[in-house]
Amino acid sequence: MKTAIFSVVALLFISGASYSGPGIDPCGSSVSLTGCSWMQLNICPAGDFDSIRDQCGSDGYISVTVLDREWEGIPGIPWTDYWIGSCDPGNEIMICMDGVVADSLTNQDGETTISGAIAGSGCAVSGGVYLKIQNIIIMEQPACTEPACIAIEIRSPDYVPDGMVDLSDLSAFSSSFGHCWGEEGYIECFDFHNDDCINLSDFAKFACHWRHRCY
């Protein structure tokens, strides 16, 4: 019992609760994709589709460095204080609660990585994605006027981003089934295999996530 209490206290101490310095500097902080130059990431509301390391290789991950306004690393930022959004306003991504989970708390230099699966919905096949930490979007250096966009394409069987793979998504998938790139009716968001056609391999992946929802 004493060991369990000590572990909880230790976790609270290193989780950032004791940090009292300046807030996150969105321009001094940085985010990048390591291990590959581009990646297609299929996500599901249940968080059980592709992981970043699956799609980018065993050494692939999103590298994150969080600095404060004095350009010092911020340690102890919790695993779940992260969010992604589409850099292209024409795309829509919905992330479930705790849908983006870092591999660890930030270390003394403010560094961590994100390499697992993401729980969410929607589609973003252009423009990449930005990272938000504790509700602050990391900005592109040096101008710091636009979000730092990572070259990741997002696809989800929850095409209509409402947190559940249901009939609205099946209807959209069915309308695209059998169509290929350049043909009327082709919806790139359902091309989970990235072979420019919506076929049985894509349906198999869609069916595996039927009725999955955010938790």
Can you describe what's shown?
By secondary structure, the protein is of the alpha+beta class. The chain has one domain (2-161): Immunoglobulin-like. The chain is built from four helices and ten strands. The chain has helices at 2-17, 52-56, 167-176, 200-208; strands at residues 30-34, 39-42, 61-65, 82-86, 92-95, 111-114, 120-123, 129-133, 136-137, 152-155. The strands form four sheets. A three-stranded antiparallel beta sheet has the order 1-3-6. The chain has a three-stranded antiparallel beta sheet with strand order 4-8-9, with no helix packed on it. A two-stranded parallel sheet has the order 2-10. Residues 1-17 have low confidence and may be disordered.
Query: Gyration radius, to the nearest Å?
Result: 19 Å
Q: What structural category arises from helix and sheet content?
A: alpha+beta
User: Could you tell me the number of beta strands?
Assistant: 10
Helix percent band: 10-25%
> Strand order within the widest sheet?
1-3-6
CATH hierarchy class name: Mainly Beta
Order of helices and strands: HEEHEEEEEEEEHH
Mean pLDDT: 92
Strand-helix topology:
Layout: H1 2-17, E1 30-34, E2 39-42, H2 52-56, E3 61-65, E4 82-86, E5 92-95, E6 111-114, E7 120-123, E8 129-133, E9 136-137, E10 152-155, H3 167-176, H4 200-208
Parallel strand pairs: 2-10
Antiparallel strand pairs: 1-3, 3-6, 4-8, 5-7, 8-9
